[in-house]
């Protein structure tokens, strides 16, 4: 859910359901690689359990993004729990889905 499940939304959802698994908004691997990944990966320890969602088509960039997410989470939390978990999506390109 790009531009929706930001840290403010996750905080609100955590108030509603203390034990639910929360997910970050989808962050592209390229944005983590080229941008301010600390700002993109920011979360509060009270949001646990939370999973980092990484999108992209380059496996090397996605692996790097997952490593950065794990390193960032390790620095931000007392326990080693890199965003709870991380996952990537494998989907067909939109042009294939629409145009065949």
What's the structural blueprint in terms of helices and strands?
Elements: H1 7-16, E1 22-23, E2 27-28, H2 29-34, H3 37-41, E3 50-55, H4 59-76, E4 85-88, H5 94-99
Parallel strand pairs: 1-3, 2-3, 3-4
Detailed description of the structure:
The protein has 5 helices and 4 strands. With 100 residues, it is an alpha/beta fold. It has a single domain (7-99), classed as TIM Barrel (Alpha-Beta Barrel).
Features:
about 100 residues, alpha/beta, TIM Barrel, 4-stranded parallel sheet, 4 strands, about 45% helix, elongated, disordered C terminus
Silhouette? elongated
Q: Distance between the terminal alpha carbons, to the nearest Å?
A: 25 Å
Total number of β-strand segments? 4
| Count of discrete structural domains | 1
Stated plainly, the CATH topology is called TIM Barrel
Quick rundown:
The chain has 100 residues and is of the alpha/beta class. The chain contains 5 helices and 4 strands. It is 45% helix and 14% strand.
């Amino acid at each position: 859910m790009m531009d929706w499940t930001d840290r403010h939304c996750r905080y609100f959802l955590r108030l509603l359901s203390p034990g639910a698994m929360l997910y970050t908004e989808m962050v592209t691997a390229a944005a983590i690689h080229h941008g301010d990944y600390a700002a993109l990966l920011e979360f509060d320890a009270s949001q646990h359990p939370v999973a980092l969602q990484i999108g992209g088509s380059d496996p090397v960039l996605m692996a790097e993004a997952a490593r950065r997410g794990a390193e960032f989470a390790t620095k931000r939390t007392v326990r080693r729990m890199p965003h709870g978990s991380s996952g990537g999506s494998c989907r067909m390109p939109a042009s294939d889905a629409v145009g065949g």
